[in-house]
Design goal:
Chain lengths: ~150, ~120
């Protein structure tokens, strides 16, 4: 397999996993909050939260997200990668429409479309030659330390 | 926008940017496998990133107690531009037209979702 194909597979599986974890975290928080309703400054509310399985699923999602993100950043440039991670705005929007019957208004769908268009641009940007022109981040850091 | 909201917004952008750049520094500077995680844990970057992330979470919650989540999303879409600039200056990430267009489009898309309320 060529280096480009390997990098592509690495990004694709990494971002897919990140998306699953991010969506899981937000949906779990919503389910936890709904279960523990109404919010109040009392131990009763805290007990309702920790007594619900979804809060632990949210925590697992957080940990998974951290390890996936740190693995992706080994190669992924931070600027484009941070922007691409916002695909979770779209997945959480769709999950909320499906699970919680939240409205998909035209304006929200427009925003989701623009986000996806941006991610298509980023995908093409990394599949092209340009990506190879990045100085390896470690070399850039070392150069800075020696300046 | 009240001075308090503006200050919290600025603090939020700064902490998010510092945190993500520290994570990138931590992730780029390590080897493979389990040794990679041990190396990261022994260097300050990862801990700096996690501290900035925790403070960012606190500033975000404080910010959201003053503005709606949708307006918060709209305002926080600027973080992507700040992190893009940070990557350019710290890690010499190239500004190709497709990359810049992609980042600006995602940022605009998140702002539109925020403006949609």
């Amino acid at each position: 397999m060529s280096t480009t194909a390997r990098t592509w597979r690495f990004y694709l599986s990494g971002f897919a996993l990140l998306l699953v974890f991010d969506t899981l975290v937000q949906v779990s928080f919503k389910l936890t909050g709904t279960h523990a309703f109404p919010p109040e400054a009392s131990w009763a509310w805290v007990w309702r939260i920790v007594g619900h399985p979804w809060i632990y699923i949210a925590l697992i999602g957080y940990v998974g997200n951290f390890f996936t993100w740190m693995s992706l950043l080994k190669h992924a440039p931070i600027g484009p990668a941070f922007a691409a991670s916002h695909l979770d705005v779209v997945s959480v929007m769709l999950a909320s429409a499906w699970l919680f019957h939240e409205a998909l208004t035209p304006m929200r769908l427009l925003g989701a479309g623009v986000i996806m268009l941006g991610i298509v641009c980023l995908a093409f940007a990394e599949s092209g030659e340009q990506a190879a022109h990045d100085a390896p981040a470690k070399a850039a850091l070392d150069a800075m330390a020696n300046d | 926008m009240s001075p308090l909201i503006a200050t919290l917004w600025l603090v939020n952008v700064t902490l998010d940017t510092c945190g993500q750049l520290a994570f990138k520094a931590a992730a780029s500077d390590a080897g493979d496998g389990a040794a990679r995680w041990r190396h990261m844990a022994s260097r300050p970057w990862l801990w700096l990133g996690l501290s900035a992330y925790a403070l960012h979470l606190a500033s975000w919650i404080a910010f959201l107690s003053l503005v709606d989540l949708s307006k918060g999303m709209l305002l926080a879409s600027i973080n992507m531009v700040a992190i893009m600039l940070g990557g350019r200056f710290l890690f010499r990430e190239t500004f190709t037209p497709l990359r810049v267009a992609g980042i600006l489009l995602v940022s605009a898309g998140v702002a539109i979702v925020g403006a949609a309320g």
